[in-house]
Amino acid sequence: GIMLGGIVASKSRGGFVGLVVVGGLIWLMSNHRIRMLALAAVSIGFLALIAPAEYWGEMGTITDTEDGTRNERLHSWGTGWRGFLDHPVFGVGQGNIPWHMSTYADPNYRGKGLGGRATHSLYLTLLPEMGIAGTSLYIWLLVLHARSLIWLMRQSKRAGHLKRVQQYDAYARSILCAT
Length: 179
What we know:
Blueprint: H1 2-10, H2 13-29, H3 33-50, H4 53-59, H5 68-86, H6 97-104, H7 123-159, H8 163-178
Helix pairs in contact: 2-3, 2-8, 5-6, 5-7, 7-8
């Protein structure tokens, strides 16, 4: 409920999309899909009741191609990509892309200056900051993490009805959804 309230209060379109995706993953991984569907229906009804009209108006602009925020993000992504192309192997260093944004910005762009700003993309932060070497390590860690969670889920199924084992299964499923 608190996260739902935070998404509504911030009027974040990305938060709304993330909420839908994570909700879908939770439903797919659930052993109780009918219950989860009922819970989703109640949550959607609750959201419809508490969310102000401005929130729904903002969510209606998700597909607006003329939105200023959208254009700034696209420019930020392009800037991050140019930073990656300039330092493809090792990147500009962890946490440093905001300080290189003005260096790689398109000189013809007439929007806000991007110096000190984030790229607003996991991929276009990892690649320019850590290069191929660091991004490959990051992806490998994600793969190991997912494999260990899937292993834990399989082990819990084999162990049967033990309450503690069921808690491990729930933990593994929730962390995998969050990943």
